[in-house]
Backbone:
């Protein structure tokens, strides 16, 4: 497999699932301490990786769980951002400027904070009230954050009596690191072929629904746009027929992401339409990934992590074929926050 270290990958994702042992006691402590609402606040693409977990909470619980952007919060904070709020702050580097600025803002308001970082010796890891550090890098961080945020939300719901499969679900999630590594291996040839097919294309529409919509948005914006300088148009499958459909014509590339939750039919509808009008419909389906020993209930929860792990293989081949390393940026170091 091209530029892939299986042992490293499995170790990182095992670390992500490993927070489960501490997550539930921590949520009990926070609830007992008066927490009445939860916000996820991440800067940039990492915020998108929290959306599937937020969706789980909003579907299964009456506990207020929402998202807010750090750069916006410090200018115009949402209601309820006080001592009864918990803010979860994901940041791979632990040094993201907007998030560090947000942390100071939250401390002044008495907000409880929990950071998810890839490095322990960083401001966010050291200065939040609680921290989970799981070393990761760009090629492994998506799955890590998807899993950690999911586990935290499930722990919250379990402690509130709104999710009774916590232990069983965690036991299944513990199988995922090896299973995702196997999925990468199975997808390798297809990833290489797809990369060769699209390496010279300059524009793609990305769409999906339910838990995989954030991954469609993330891959278009944070991988192809930021890391490959390729123009994309991420659009939710529910909105596809309210504008974006008019851009579909022969030669237009449409990526359709499909999960295994109740909103899968929205992606099916886009796929059926797009195939009538363009020869470049690329479908990535979480249901195609073999997960022996994982229940249908848990599969619904991990679809975005599965697609992220397949797409990393596509990225690995694209950067080689396009002679454009994923670490190459034009402006990233020049932006002043």
Residues:
């Amino acid at each position: 497999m091209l530029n892939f270290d299986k042992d490293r990958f499995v170790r990182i994702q095992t670390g992500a699932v490993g927070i489960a042992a501490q997550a539930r006691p921590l949520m009990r402590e926070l609830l007992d301490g008066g927490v009445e609402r939860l916000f996820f606040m991440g800067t940039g693409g990492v915020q998108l990786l929290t959306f599937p977990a937020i969706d789980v909470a909003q579907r299964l619980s009456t506990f207020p769980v929402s998202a807010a952007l750090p750069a916006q919060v410090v200018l115009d904070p949402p209601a309820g951002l006080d001592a009864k709020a918990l803010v979860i702050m994901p940041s791979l580097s632990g040094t993201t400027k907007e998030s560090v600025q947000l942390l100071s803002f939250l401390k002044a308001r008495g907000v409880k904070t929990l950071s998810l970082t890839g490095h322990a010796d960083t401001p966010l890891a050291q200065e939040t009230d609680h921290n989970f550090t799981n070393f990761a890098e760009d090629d492994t961080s998506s799955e890590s954050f998807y899993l950690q945020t999911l586990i935290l939300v499930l722990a919250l719901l379990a402690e509130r009596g709104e999710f009774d499969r916590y232990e069983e679900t965690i036991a299944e999630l513990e199988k995922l690191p090896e299973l995702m590594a196997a999925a990468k291996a199975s997808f390798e040839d297809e990833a290489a072929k797809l990369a060769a097919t699209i390496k010279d294309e300059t524009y793609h529409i990305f769409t999906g629904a339910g838990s995989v919509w954030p991954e469609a948005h993330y891959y278009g914006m944070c991988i192809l746009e930021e890391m490959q300088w390729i123009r994309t148009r991420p659009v939710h499958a529910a909105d596809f027929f309210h504008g974006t459909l008019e851009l579909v014509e022969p030669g237009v590339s449409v990526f359709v992401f499909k999960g295994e939750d109740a909103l899968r039919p929205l992606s099916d509808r886009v796929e059926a339409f797009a195939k009538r009008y363009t020869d470049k419909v690329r479908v990535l389906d979480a249901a195609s990934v073999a997960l022996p020993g994982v229940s249908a209930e848990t599969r619904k929860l991990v679809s975005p992590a599965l697609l992220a792990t397949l797409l990393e293989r596509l990225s690995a081949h694209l950067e080689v074929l396009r002679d454009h390393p994923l670490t190459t940026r034009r402006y990233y170091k020049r932006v002043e926050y």
In short: The chain has two domains: 6-173, 178-321. The radius of gyration is 20 Å. The first helix runs from residue 6 to 17. The chain has a mean pLDDT of 97.
